[in-house]
Specification:
elongated, mainly alpha
Length: 211
């Protein structure tokens, strides 16, 4: 476990602590971007009646919760606490599970009301930026997670990668809707719900750090 590694190998402790500080700094920076991303994504999604874009904006809020969890995990005395890592991992799993039922219910509501997504320049711009930036951020966090033996950090990185993948899906859905394939948008939202549920299960078990 992280605290055992640090105390058992004093020569490696400085490197481990640097990695912990890097994980915390990346999470703080991610929070700033996700606050903007979520606000713009939700605003554009509600205006365009895009359930996938709304779901993507909501997932940014969940990602923000994951980042807060990692900041909490690597602050103060919790940095070397095995118990803090365990609690952070469980909290991160719950953050995945919060998203899934919301998405399914929102898809059902929009289908019942007959809402169809319409193109939105703002939504396209925000998701495009995320599609470019989030993969690099997620991969860096997952590398740090392996150095720290931290499933919580790995889970946050996975959420960043999911964000990038779903941004690509949302972009495709918005474009395909212009040629009449309106059903792509709700399908992408349901797919996102399934991914969130699966990743929540993996995070709860602590599987994310090793894959």
């Amino acid at each position: 476990m992280p605290d055992q590694r640090v105390h058992a190998h004093p020569a490696a402790s400085a490197e481990w602590l640097r990695a912990a500080r890097s994980a915390r700094a990346l999470s703080v920076a991610t929070l700033v971007w996700l606050g903007l991303e979520s606000s713009l994504g939700l605003w554009a999604g509600f205006r365009a009646h895009s359930v996938a874009l709304i779901g993507w904006g909501m997932s940014a809020l969940v990602e923000g919760a994951a980042s807060l969890i990692v900041v909490w995990r690597f602050t103060g005395s919790r940095t070397l606490s095995e118990g803090a890592e365990h609690r952070a991992r469980k909290a991160l799993a719950v953050s995945f599970w919060v998203l899934a039922p919301y998405l399914v219910l929102h898809v059902a509501y929009d289908l019942d009301m007959g809402h169809r997504a319409v193109p939105t320049a703002l939504g396209i711009a925000v998701t495009a930026v995320s599609l470019v930036s989030m993969p690099a951020l997620g991969l860096v966090k997952r590398r740090l997670a392996r150095r720290l033996a931290s499933p919580a950090t790995a889970g946050e990185g996975t959420q960043n990668l999911i964000c990038a993948a779903t941004a690509g899906g949302v972009l495709a859905g918005l474009w395909l809707n212009t040629v009449g394939w309106w059903w792509v948008d709700p399908v992408m939202a349901v797919a996102l719900a399934a991914v969130a549920a699966r990743e929540g299960h993996r995070a709860w078990r602590g599987d994310g750090c090793c894959h």
